[in-house]
Every structure is written in structure tokens, then in C-alpha cells.
Hints:
- The structure is a homodimer.
- Chain A has 3 domains: about 10-170, Rossmann fold; about 180-270 and about 390-425, 3-Layer(aba) Sandwich (Rossmann fold); about 280-385, Rossmann fold.
- Helices cover about 35% and strands about 15% of the residues of chain A.
- In chain A, helix 6 links the parallel strand 7 (about 190-195) and strand 8 (about 220-225).
- The model of chain A is unreliable at about 1-10 (pLDDT under 50).
- In chain A, helix 5 (about 160-170) packs antiparallel against helix 12 (about 360-375) and helix 11 (about 315-325) crosses helix 13 (about 380-390).
- Chain A has helices spanning about 25-30, 75-85, 105-115, 135-140, 160-170, 205-220, 230-235, 250-260, 270-275, 280-285, 315-325, 360-375, 380-390, 390-395, 400-405, 410-425, and strands spanning about 10-20, 50-55, 60-65, 95-100, 120-125, 150, 190-195, 220-225, 245, 265, 295-300, 330-335, 350-355, 380.
- By secondary structure, chain A is of the alpha/beta class.
- The first copy, chain A, has 16 helices and 14 strands.
- At the A-B interface, helix 6, strand 8 and helix 7 of A face helix 6, strand 8 and helix 7 of B.
- Strand 8 (about 220-225) of chain A pairs antiparallel with strand 8 of chain B.
Amino acid sequence: MSLNTTPRGQRLHIALFGRRNAGKSSLINALTGQEVAIVSDVPGTTTDPVAKAMEILPLGPVMIIDTAGIDDVGELGALRVKKSFEVLNRTDLALLVIDPGRGFGPYEEEVLKRCEEYKVPVVTVINKIDLYPEVVRNGLGVELASPKVFVSALTRQGIEELKQVIIQHAPKDWTMPTIVGDLIQPGDLVVLVIPIDKAAPKGRLILPQQQVIRDIIDHDAVAIMVKERELKHALSHLGVKPRLVITDASAYLKAAADTPPDVLFTSFSVLFARYKGDLETLVMGVKAVDKLRPGDRVLIAEACTHHPIEDDIGRVKIPRWLRSRVGGELHFDVVAGSGPLPENLGDYKLIVHCGACMLNRKEMLSRLMQARRAGVPIVNYGVIMAHMHGVLRRALSPFPALQALLEPAEEEMELELELLRRVRG
Amino acid sequence: MSLNTTPRGQRLHIALFGRRNAGKSSLINALTGQEVAIVSDVPGTTTDPVAKAMEILPLGPVMIIDTAGIDDVGELGALRVKKSFEVLNRTDLALLVIDPGRGFGPYEEEVLKRCEEYKVPVVTVINKIDLYPEVVRNGLGVELASPKVFVSALTRQGIEELKQVIIQHAPKDWTMPTIVGDLIQPGDLVVLVIPIDKAAPKGRLILPQQQVIRDIIDHDAVAIMVKERELKHALSHLGVKPRLVITDASAYLKAAADTPPDVLFTSFSVLFARYKGDLETLVMGVKAVDKLRPGDRVLIAEACTHHPIEDDIGRVKIPRWLRSRVGGELHFDVVAGSGPLPENLGDYKLIVHCGACMLNRKEMLSRLMQARRAGVPIVNYGVIMAHMHGVLRRALSPFPALQALLEPAEEEMELELELLRRVRG
């Protein structure tokens, strides 16, 4: 997940506007969890607007554009302000940061006017509520058409809500810049394992398979497709080791067994969990499976109202496996459809979400944020299926930071399963 | 194009019915151009209905089911008749063969009744018109709802028309059993060259690419996809030589140059010319290019009424190339849309047809048959483009019988071009 290999043009561009010392740079640090901007209480520390590639969890890679104070003074200051507004040309979303000690005035009006002019959605962020707690109750004394969020960049209060609002106002077609391109180098061989079963459409490839192939060849690498039965044969007929093997979840065990241990291994569903949402949140969620106790409530969340099939993955397979793992009864509720998750999320010990093929990234991230804010672990079908098959650690091999999140217990179970597989041949 | 590797289930199944000695077996020979059925004038030579895999040009692979005479006598004869009608369970199209000397009677009525019962379309074939020429004028004395064709299996009169009618009554979804599967063996490596230019849809593969990938992995082989720039690199990183390289037509020269001479080489458009129609007819058609003279009329036939783009392949590129090749003016007419080709086909020295992505195999074959019957050479964009790039012989390497159809002159030109390419590097 190298930041450097992500093309600038495809990241969500977020520009921050506000008077000098309103706390724009501190807010960036609070959003990214890093000390990246120069924070100082000397007004006017930021001069030329600089776009910086950053990562906001769980939003993923973004481009943050910090601008000079809109109240900058003097000839040079006026030039800085002019340059600040020019960034609206390449901005997806603007944050107007307000210091309650100074309030909403002509400077802030100017920002809203300019954003309207450039048709850039704007979110008003009232900062420093640790210093001015009364502003949350009393407001700014103006009626704003645009959404507003109260935060403290210092105490991080309201930051999660701000992320949620940022997601809501991101462009509809906002995606991750790449599905797999950041994991490979030009010229790499990438093997895709595609079982042909009754579910496979005749004479076609499903869209996720097409997207991964395109992403591979768009990144100057070589995409190699086989059924699971030919994987071993194909690997033995390549002159070099492939960089990565990506399997369909239905062939997890066979593909994992036939892929040499020193070759990176993952699945389409793990890649799309990252592409369509946030893999880290989901991996954190899977750990809650081990903490489930008989009698706990689990929410199965489906994005579409499909007709449940026999042996349905969300309504039959996963509940059956969870009950057997817990060794007792669990209470399952199912919600289906788009829009936010139900308000009583706090009643659940775990949310199991579908693969979200009918949701865009915005919608899925919104739901992940909703679960995070409610403090409820959330996992999706792809990640929990990998866990059920004992291959999650292996399927996270391209993401060592996430692998490290898994409990040692999980590792032991994997080793046991690996031994079992070898014994069975 | 081995007949044996084509699965039986996907071939067009044609069953022949008729009285003993109506000439069913001779008709099969006339359709296939081979002496395959046992022909004899002893009534009742055919006993148990036998399904045989055969090739009818230009229809491609079919399954012919020859049945016992429907007027067979005795206990054994009655059993044979019963078995004959049972084949209607696996028949796409029935031919009712009539000997005008015996006429249309209760036996024939029974066949039509049974076909209606099994919902199998039936074509009445009045045979032996060399012996009974008056039947063509006078008919059979009955009104038939189903189509009828007058033929002589002996002189081959009417056989081309019968093929046309067979195509018209084939099932709508009738296709070739495979696009590329008959050219490869299980475990083979097949490399697909897919240039990513502005015309490529973002994040997807076009349907023909998906179909070829699926066909390869469905046949237990390995599909390897690269952009043209990475072809050489990919070939050098495979442990074995690939069986076949298939290129997009837009990368003909680069892909041909980078593919070792001992590796089979073709293009998506050549494969689809075969899958969607008849490659032999089109290769015969390309030879007419060399016979064009200034002043000749050429018909450009497009299957859809797309908005012509600048540098349109059918309206600009091919006419420009043909004019320069002929060294003078040519008269081009363009027809666009589905349905039969215009009736004045005889006015043209060459028909250049589009890739037929909007036509099914039935419709494209119908048009090829129409051109054949009018005696006008027909070629399609894919085949003529390969010829224009001097790579047609190379692109026919999986089809040596068709390669042999090309003039030596063509070969010499290819060699010249090859030399030119090497000189230019």
C-alpha cells in the first residue's frame, strides 16, 4: 500500500480553507493520525498551497491541500489567498475550518461563495471545541446550508464524525486508485485462479475478474488465468516465480496448498474488501469472532434484497459456522437493502456484511464508519470466509501490517490446518 | 479444426426422415461433400439411427442423424421407425426427404405431426429433381406450412439453397462449439495480446476477450494476458513456449514481430470470423482483392447503423487501402443494418463485411451464403485487415488448410514485408 505508487489524479482531493491559526494543519494531523503538517501558533505558517498524498483511515489514500490563511494580509498575503482559491479547480471536497473565537464572518462567506462558484461541496468544521465548548450548543449565529461538524483537532473529539461526513460528500464515483496495481511491479507475473462451476456465467468473466485483469495489464504486468486444477501445472511451466496468486474464495484451500509459501497469496474478495472499503477495519472485526459467546446477537447486513438461495452464504453458511465455533446458540438478525445500518447497532457483538457488490465505496465506507462509531466490530463475507477456511493470514500476505493484527491463536490454528491439509494430500 | 475434440452436445443436430430409398444418405453426402453414408438403392440400408459428427461448409460442425425408412415393414421395421422418432428428443432441425416418384402421403404426414409434437422445426426436401424436373413446377399437390426446398442430391442442384434454409431454421443461439478450444490441448499456454488504448473501456474487458479467456480455461489450458509492450518480456519469462499467441488486430505488427516463428499466431478477429461465420469463405474472398480493377464496385456491409467515426475502418481505412492497391478509383456503396444483403449483389466485385458483433452466427452465415449463391467474393474487416498488414498468412497459422488457399503472390508480399520490418527494426 505504498503511497508513492498511487497516481495523484485518482485520489480524493480535500482542500482546507480558513483564517490563519484556525487549526487547519492540526486538523490534518488529527485526520491522518500523523504529524505531517507544520503546526505552530504563529499565524500564517502555511504559504503556497501544497497537495500532499496521505492516508486517512478508513478512507484510504487522499490528497490533502492545505492553503494559506484566507485573512492573510499585505500584497504577498493577497497573492497567497488568490492562489488558495485556485486549488478549487482540482478539489473534490472543501473543508472550511472555523475558530469559534473569531466566528463566522466575511472571510468565511467568501469561501462558501467561491466553493459554490466552482461547484465544490463544502463542509464547515468548527474547531477548538475543547476551548469553546459552548459553541456546540449555541452554534455560530448563522444559518448554513452546507453541513457542519464540531471537532477538536487537539482532543480528536468529532474527528470520526467528520470522516463520516467527508465520505458522504465525496464524489459518487470515488474509488481506490487501484485494486492490485500498488502490490506489483511492471513485468511481474500475477496468477488468477478462477474455478469454473455452475455459478460462473457461460462464456464470460464476472466484473471483478475483468477489473483485476485490467488493473494488472494497465500496470504493465502479466495476468495469467487458470482453473484451480491447472494452477500447479501453470506454476511449474512459468520460467520465474509469480509475484502474486489471487484466488476465487471458492478455491481457497486448493489454491493455497498449490501456491509455494514464498509467493504472495490473496483472494479477489480480500482485494475487493480493500478496494470497496477498508481492509483494516474488517480484519479488526474478524478478531471479534473469537470473543463471541453463546447468546450474543450478530447482525447479518446485506446490501441488496436478493432472493436467498439454499445454503446461502450469509443466512446459512456463516451462521452455521459461527454457532459451531461458539459452541452454542447465537441470535442472528438480517437486514437487507442500501442506506445506513439500523440505529440499534450497539445491541450487536458483531456485524457480518456482504461483499457489497451493489454498494459503491462511499456507501460501504459510510457503513464501516457507522460501525466504528458504534464501537461494534464489523467483518465482511470475504474476510470471514478466509478466516473460516483457515487461510486469512495467508490471504493477507501482501499486507504484512494487517497480518500482524491477527492473534497468535489464529496463527496456531492455521498451522494445524496446514498440517491437516498436508496429511490429507 | 479437429472434429473429434468438439463436444457432441454443442453441435447443431440435424435429423433426416423419409421413406426407404428417398435418398437420405445421398443427401448427407451432398451436404457434406463426402462419401460418408452407405449409399445403395437397396431399400432399408440404414437401420439404427446413428448420429455422426460432420462438417457442412460453411455451416461448420454439425451432428447428422440418419434414420431408418419411415415406411419400414415388419416387426423389426416398426421398431426401427419408433427408434427413428425418438431422436427428435435431441434434434434441432429435421429434414423430411421426399422422393417425388412416391409423393407426399401418410408417412410424410406422420413425420410432420411428430415434429410438431416435439416442437422441432422441419424443412421438406424434395429430392431427385434431376429425375422428376416437373415436380419443381407442379409441386407435391399439398399445401405445406413448413418451408420446402427442391434438390438433386446427385447433381447438387439446390444444395446451397438448402444450406441457406437450414441456417435460417437453426436455433437462435446456435454457435460454434468453441472459439479456440479445438486449437489447443489441456495444459497449453495461450498468450493474449490486449493493447490498452483510448478505445478500451476503463476497468473492463470487451466481450470477445472474455469469451476467449473463458474458452481457454474451460479447455483446461492457461490464458496469459499482456499489453503488446510486455509480450516479449512475458514470452521470455515463460518456462515453455506457448501453444498460441492471439493478438488484437490493432497490435498485429508488433505482436507478429515479437512472436517466435515456430509459435502459432492468430488474432481475435480471425478467430471470431470463424466462430461467427465461415473463415474459408472469407479467405477465398480476400483473394478477390488482387483481382480488383479500377472502376469496380465494392459493397461495404455493416451490421449496425453506428455513427461513423473519423478514420472509420469500413468507410475510410479499407477504401483508401483498396484504392491505393488497385491504383485507381473504385466505386464504394455502403449498406448498414441487419437483414439480408441487397438483391443487386451481382453488381459488385467484392463485399467487405464488418466484424458482425451485432449479428449472431445464423445471420452472418446467411449473408455469407447469400454472397456465395450470387457468386460474389466476400471478406470481413478482420481478414482484410490482416491482409492489409501483411500478416494474414501468419494469422492463419492454426489453419494450415486455409493458409494453403492463399496465392504464392501473397506469400512473396509477406516475405517482403517481413524483411522490411526487420530492416526497420
